[in-house]
Amino acid sequence: MTTGVSFRGINDTGPRHEKFTYWDSLFDVGLRGEMGEFGDYFKTWNWELGFRYSRNEGQDLAVGEASQPGLREALLDTDPATAFDPFLNFNAHNTKAARQRVYITLHNSGEYELPIGYATVNGDLFNLPAGPVSFAIGGEYDAPRWTRDRDTLNTTFQSIGSADGGSARVNRDVWSIYQEVRVPFTSPTWNLPGFYSFEVDFAEREEWYSQNTSAVLPSGAFPFQPAAHSQYNMQKPKVSVRWQPLDPKYIGALTLRGSYTEAFHAPALPEISPASTQDFFGAFDQFTGQTYMFEVRVIGNPNLQPEVAYEWSYGAVYSPKWIKGLTLSADWWHIDMRSIASLLGVAFIRDNDIPGLVFRGPPRVINGRLVPGLINLVIDPNENLTGAIFEGLDYEAIYILDSSIFGHGDFGRLTATLNGTWLSRAELQILPDTKRFGIAGEVIPPGFTLTGSLPWSRANFSLFYDGPADTWLQGLDVGAIVHYTGQYEDDNQTLTTNFSSVGFTKPQTPRSGPLPWRARKVREWITLDLIASYTFNLPPPAPAQVPGFAKDGGKNVNMKDGKQKNVIPVSTAEYNPCGWRTWLNNTTISLGMQNVFDEDPPFVAGSGENGYDESLATIKGRFWYVQLKKRF
Length: 632
What we know:
The model is unreliable at 570-574 (pLDDT under 50). The protein has helices at residues 10-13, 68-76, 96-102, 152-155, 248-251, 269-272, 346-352, 492-495, 580-584; strands at residues 17-34, 46-67, 103-128, 131-142, 145-149, 159-160, 168-186, 197-213, 228-244, 252-265, 276-285, 290-299, 307-320, 326-343, 358-360, 364-366, 369-371, 375-402, 413-429, 437-438, 457-466, 476-485, 488-489, 521-522, 525-535, 556-558, 564-566, 587-594, 623-630. By secondary structure, the chain is mainly beta.
């Protein structure tokens, strides 16, 4: 039964709050060595073994939440000492006994642990006229384990004001091998006209996955979910080419490069757990013509498959001969993603009234016509969507001005860098029977797990000064960084939709909805960061002479008869002296400030929660920091 009465227990408990506690541990161990002792053929071979274990434990105490069964019993209680009265005036509060029955502290905890072991070998196989054919081969074992233990009231969906959901346990075992071969067909030591240097890299990686999810108890519309097991493997290649057509002495260093890669990404462990998480969503229902609240269950999928991607890129790096210190680069890239693991989204499920995911009440007769029932529940599952395509241009310009080139001494070095990305195309296809539509230059609403918002242009410009070598300014590094995010479209698909009638905007034409005058752009955002650091590089102290030993290293000792005798030194070890110079040497002090002018992020109407784009911006504002680092 819904009464339509709202109640706030501020005078009873105060504001709700949560207490988080985390325990982190990390262990690393490794060995590396060379294989030259096995013969001259292995003199370039190296090996490495390593093991890492990391663990994160967390506890969340949600204070001041309400218990459904406790509230129900207290409302039905007839004893004034223990009954709960929701109709007290603003300044009154319930008895302690009543409050203890209704208001509780929920205990939620979770753990994530990841042991990783790996082994690699690399070296040269044999020599070609242009140089050695190099290789690398390795193997790795990962075993992530994720656990989430919710409070009993949460797992039975009987709390009020807290996100209910099931407990979950998921583990995964991953075995992988990878190999890479670099073949130099030509090089500066052996080349042909037009092929000053030409080399190709061939690489491949294969992984085998075995994963398990725990059983989930029934709750509401959800039946019992048994424990599940799934397996799959992936084998993906990569080929890259690096080509210098001309000797740098003619026009400077020009390098052409390109690559083709097939990649994959396994779903995160929470994404494959069938344990659901409860939420509530308020929206306009085009099938009933009403706006109301309904329950949403976000749920994982044990049968979720890895995302796969096909990527290619080509570009050039050029350092002109006539402008010393300048380097220019540009790369055009294309990414074709398929089987994207993502939530379908409540709005998409609701608007398409997908059977099995939308549960409605019984149909009703209103004004003589049959109207569908109100939505009681929407299930938002993780699914493998059809795919997405991204294309764009990465560019960079670096200029290093060394003051010594002017012939008047060394006064330090200036380094200016400009790098950025221009997004040419981004298109998304949800299901095989739906159209692909563009999402480039648009706000991506929160909750969409594929990507954040996609402005057409983003860039950074930095200018740094490094002190001259062999002076006390050698360790000085001072610089400024300007961050630029260009304009992009707001969530116009939602803004131009008319929710009071059946008038929705098409995804591929978000500005042409029933209310096109509400479409808007998110303005550009420019921020400035400053940083200054100094590293102490003190010269080593002059070695002190040991009494009784000569200046030639202590090999000759003056005897009583005036003759010298050659003896073995007492010690050839060199010890670092103690004192303030030792502690100060190799110490770096940094002082920085982010967002110097305290620029607020631009307003985004499509972000109803906070009014700004959380995927690109932050409301942290001006922030300064100090860092002290010591290298031993």
